[in-house]
């Protein structure tokens, strides 16, 4: 018993020693792991710094390359001369790569007003295509992705129900209203403003009618063109686009709805970034193609498609690089494509637009047919000058 009592403390002490040794081993293992983590963090930090330095060098190289290309293009541009004199020197057009709205210019010509947008002044930019490509097209490019549809507060019914439930007196009033709206749309700035207000005043009664709604969107496009304030331009285009977003959910087979949705997207894209503008280019082309499929004899749609083709065929180096970087299949079109669409406009409606004839001349010039270009310039001059295209 005495021996047992003597052994007990010794066994207890051995256990404490073992526990202490195990604890030390665990601490050493933890320290080794921490040291491993710290070494990895240090290596990662060094790799991040190297990557950052590489990116900075790459950015500097790209910037230098772009600057060098722009300077070289501008030098070449200044040496170019075209045989056609400039019609106007106070161009108010924009040179964005797709479908920008006219910068506050009054537009009463059928071709331009129905088109609802301009990419550049039709006459004043006649001898400045290279300048638009290098100095404006590459220095000021800025195209919009389609936003999520926002429904109007009015609960729209479907098209068939709308015609069935419209009161006969309201239907007669609608016909007169639409005629008046068309007449005011073809007038001067003040008449366009009156037409816009007229349609707004009747929206509560006729917002479920297709013919009314696309005219309201057209009036928003008119207001976006004639106002001078940039924020107001954007607001009018945005509101009109939203009207058409709602309309297209009900009337996907309406050529006018597709056409004016495309136009308003283009006008709104004037105020957006280059990425959104490029995205808008695809949207614009899609809806114009649908409008033509639904109404193949409408000259307005071919005029708009011709403008799109001409713009795409003259994209600058920077714009092409941007489109290639953002999309797997950048938009493609040739001057010949644009010419065919403009000639189709003349076939359907001779003298439809002064700008349309000027663009035919520009296409022939670009294709090297200067005699045809001169002929179409003379034909354009025969049309009355009643716009600020």
TrEMBL record:
Residues 81-144 are annotated as: Disordered. Gene3D superfamilies: Tetratricopeptide repeat domain. InterPro entries: RMD1-3_a_helical_rpt, TPR-like_helical_dom_sf. Keywords: Coiled coil, Cytoplasm, Cytoskeleton, Membrane, Mitochondrion, Mitochondrion outer membrane, Nucleus, Transmembrane, Transmembrane helix. It comes from the Eukaryota. Its main location: cytoplasm. It is found in: Cytoplasm, Cytoskeleton, Spindle pole; Mitochondrion outer membrane; Nucleus. It is a single-pass membrane protein. Pfam families: RMD1-3. Residues 34-65 form a coiled coil. Residues 91-108 have a biased composition (Polar residues). GO terms for molecular function: microtubule binding. Residues 132-142 have a biased composition (Acidic residues). One of its GO terms (cellular component) is mitochondrial outer membrane. Belongs to the RMDN family. PANTHER family: REGULATOR OF MICROTUBULE DYNAMICS PROTEIN, REGULATOR OF MICROTUBULE DYNAMICS PROTEIN 3. This is Regulator of microtubule dynamics protein 3. It comes from Thinocorus orbignyianus.
């Amino acid at each position: 018993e005495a021996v047992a009592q003597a052994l007990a403390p010794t066994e207890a002490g051995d256990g404490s020693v073992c526990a202490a040794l195990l604890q030390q081993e665990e601490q050493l293992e933890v320290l080794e792991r921490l040291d491993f983590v710290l070494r990895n963090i240090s290596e990662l930090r060094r790799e991040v710094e190297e990557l950052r330095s590489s990116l900075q060098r790459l950015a500097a190289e790209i910037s230098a390359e772009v600057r060098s290309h722009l300077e070289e293009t501008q030098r070449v541009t200044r040496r170019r001369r075209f045989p056609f004199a400039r019609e106007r020197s106070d161009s108010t057009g924009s040179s964005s790569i797709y479908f920008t709205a006219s910068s506050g210019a009054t537009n009463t010509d059928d071709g331009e007003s129905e088109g609802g947008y301009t990419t550049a002044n039709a006459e004043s930019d006649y001898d400045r295509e290279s300048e638009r490509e290098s100095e404006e097209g590459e220095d000021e490019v800025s195209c919009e992705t389609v936003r999520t549809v926002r429904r109007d507060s009015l609960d729209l019914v479907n098209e068939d129900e709308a015609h069935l439930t419209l009161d006969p007196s309201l239907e007669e009033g609608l016909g007169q209203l639409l005629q008046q709206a068309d007449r005011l749309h073809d007038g001067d700035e003040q008449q366009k403003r009156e037409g816009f207000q007229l349609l707004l005043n009747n929206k509560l009664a006729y917002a479920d009618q297709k013919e009314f709604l696309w005219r309201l969107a057209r009036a928003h496009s008119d207001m976006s063109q004639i106002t001078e304030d940039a924020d107001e331009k954007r607001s009018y285009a945005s509101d009109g686009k939203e009207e058409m977003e709602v309309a297209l959910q009900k009337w996907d087979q309406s050529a006018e709805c597709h056409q004016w949705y495309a136009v308003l997207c283009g006008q709104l894209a004037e105020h957006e970034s280059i990425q959104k503008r490029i995205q808008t280019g695809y949207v614009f082309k899609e809806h114009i193609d649908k409008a033509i499929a639904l109404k193949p004899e409408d000259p307005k749609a071919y005029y708009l498609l011709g403008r799109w083709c001409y713009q795409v065929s003259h994209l600058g180096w920077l714009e092409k690089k941007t489109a290639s970087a953002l999309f797997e299949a950048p938009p493609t079109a040739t001057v010949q494509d644009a010419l065919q669409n403009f000639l189709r406009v003349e076939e359907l409606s001779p003298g439809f637009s002064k700008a349309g004839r000027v663009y035919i001349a520009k296409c022939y010039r670009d294709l090297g047919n200067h005699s045809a270009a001169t002929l179409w310039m003379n034909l354009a001059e025969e049309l009355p000058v009643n716009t600020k295209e």
